[in-house]
Design a protein that fits this description.
CATH architecture: 2-Layer Sandwich
Helix content: 40-55%
Strand order of the largest sheet: 2-3-1-4
Shape: globular
CATH topology: Alpha-Beta Plaits
Number of domains: 1
CATH class: Alpha Beta
Largest sheet: 4 strands, antiparallel
Order of helices and strands: EHEEHHE
Length: 95
């Protein structure tokens, strides 16, 4: 079964408020087996519009990745994130 990956590109507008998102999202990530592969490190823009924070999260499956996003725990966190950041997120199936 292929793994699923969240790819998120984020511009944080309020770093202090964003900390609440991180804390609130943690239980959902733990529940669905998330493993952070990249989390806001240095970037080198190559093409298109870059965002300041880029995150890649591996899940055991596509279904786990989608279920995590749709979970009540993560949706509570997403509501916080949306107040303090602008983001684009997709789920990608691994090879």
């Amino acid at each position: 079964m292929p793994k699923g990956y969240w790819i998120a590109r984020v511009d944080v507008h309020d770093p202090e408020g964003y900390k609440d998102y991180v804390a609130t999202a943690k239980p959902a990530f733990e529940r669905f087996g998330a493993q952070f592969l990249a989390r806001g490190g240095a970037i080198t823009p190559l093409e298109g519009q870059a965002r300041a924070r880029n995150v890649v999260i591996e899940f055991p499956s596509m279904q786990a990745a989608v279920d995590c996003y749709n979970s009540a725990e993560y949706q509570a966190a997403a509501a916080i994130r949306q107040k303090y950041a602008t983001a684009e997120m997709v789920v990608v199936e691994g090879v």
